[in-house]
Amino acid sequence: MADKKKIAILTSGGDAPGMNAAIRAVVRSALYFDMEVFGVRDGYLGLMQDEIEQLSAGDVGDIIHRGGTMLGTARLPEFATDPAVRQKCYENLRAHGIEGLVVCGGDGSYRGANLVQHEGGINVIGLPGTIDNDLAYTDYTIGFDTAVNTCVDSINKLRDTMASHGRVSVVDVMGRGCGDIAVHSGIAAGAEAILIPEIKKTDNQWLDYIVQKLRTSFARGKKYGIIVMAEGVYAAPKMHHFTADYIASWLNANSETVGRRVDARGCVIGHVQRGGSPTASDRILSARMGEKAVDLLRENQGGLCVGVVKNRIVAVEIDKALSMKRRVDKHLIELADILAR
Ligand code: F6P
């Protein structure tokens, strides 16, 4: 009897709610097709340290609803820079007889996956596990929906206290190069202004924009304000000072520009938005994508990443996926603008 096909899964980079559901989907789909499946601890670090263990159906029980990743995750820059580190990883995979690897992570993790495929000669399938939704080849990444819901929940709570005091909240959400969390949570929470890194403005241009938005809103009788900004705005060169606290202080010091007294506060939602139980939408996405990853490895395919386009599960070459430039949904920005008037 031929040996069973052996595959492994790792999670890498920033964790994302739904990674556990993806691990479960990969493990259970692989077992269904009579493969052996291994879990790698802490991403590429665990590959290097040979922290690779076989997983059973029971090992992935009771995780579908949990945030984080049961396998742990890490960022290992040496994987990209040190060929010796990579060789050790490939040797460890081969020593276990592993022929296929599922990598769940963001663009950095995909670059590593490409090396395992092309240099290590082991079939790799990527699953888009990142809250940022910054991978252009897929409409949605695993964890994005949960992160947006967490932000909306936080902004709803901020709204209560901002409304009571007649204040303005400047809310910082994650997204270094991609403003999707800001745009989606800003629309869902009814923000006056949404600041994203894809729109290039100077600090003064952003301040003008915020002032105009607040003026419009106050003119129709609103007593408080919500400004949502993606962290990528101040991650840009020459913008490092432009944080939520800075904007809030500037508004307080320049109330006359808004036309009434402003009492603004900055709020960084931070890593809270990376945690929590995944939404049903993220769990279902993880299930569908995890199954697809196993299908591709069964067919001895590799160098691909799984995505969802117009609600259909697709597979795209990792090279191509990494070269695609994400476009901001201009209509959503216009919509946010129209609805905040
Ligand atoms: O890439 C996902 C992400 O959550 C980004 O939105 C954020 O900028 C970054 O990770 C934070 O990284 P760390 O957890 O290492 O501080």
Shape: elongated
Structural class: alpha/beta
Q: What is the topology, as strand order, of the major beta sheet? A: 3-2-1-4-5-10-11
Give the number of DSSP strands: 11
Q: Cα-atom Rg, whole angstroms? A: 22 Å
Oligomer: single chain
Which stretches of 5+ consecutive residues score pLDDT under 50? Answer: none
**Cα-to-Cα separation, first versus last residue:** 69 Å
Helical content stands at: 40-55%
Our count of helices gives 14
Question: What does the largest sheet look like?
Answer: 7 strands, mixed
Bound molecules: 6-O-phosphono-beta-D-fructofuranose
Overall pLDDT: 97
> Strand-and-helix sequence, N→C?
EHEHEHHEHEHEHEHEHHHEHEEHH
Strand content: 15-25%
Task: Describe the overall structure.
The radius of gyration is 22 Å and the shape is elongated. Helix 1 packs parallel to helix 12 and helix 6 crosses helix 7. Helices cover 44% and strands 17% of the residues. A seven-stranded mixed beta sheet has the order 3-2-1-4-5-10-11, sandwiched between helices. Strand 10 and strand 11 form a beta hairpin. The protein has 341 residues and is of the alpha/beta class. Bound molecules: 6-O-phosphono-beta-D-fructofuranose. 6-O-phosphono-beta-D-fructofuranose binds next to loops.
